[in-house]
Amino acid sequence: MRKNSIKNTRVNGEVHRVLAEIIRSEIKDPRINPMTSVVAVEVAPDLKTCKAWISVLGDEDSQNDTIAGLKSAEGYIRNLLAKKINLRNTPEIKFILDQSIAYGVSMSKKIDEINRADDERHVDDSGSDGDMCELL
Description:
The protein has helices at residues 6-25, 60-72, 74-84, 100-135; strands at residues 36-43, 49-56, 92-97. It is of the alpha+beta class.
């Protein structure tokens, strides 16, 4: 199976869906933050390995605890994945912390701050120009 084949894309989607469901409803580890989401999944073409990018809403300690909890429950998660998806091989899962959502939120906040400062500067500039127009 090629990396970008239709079959591989479908396997990635199905593993993504089932993995998100397992993390949301089956895992009872208190280290795993309830605001954990599976951002993306990439299953190798030979179905032996799988990379799962995980996003955690919270501070850095919460993110590290969640990844540690998922790594310790990897065997249990893999067992549930094998029961829910009928694949030739059940992939070995590697959990990777994804910072892209947090990065996007911080960039959005910075853009909003710049826009707000720019709007305030324009309001100040237009206020002084308006006085000049009234005098003329």
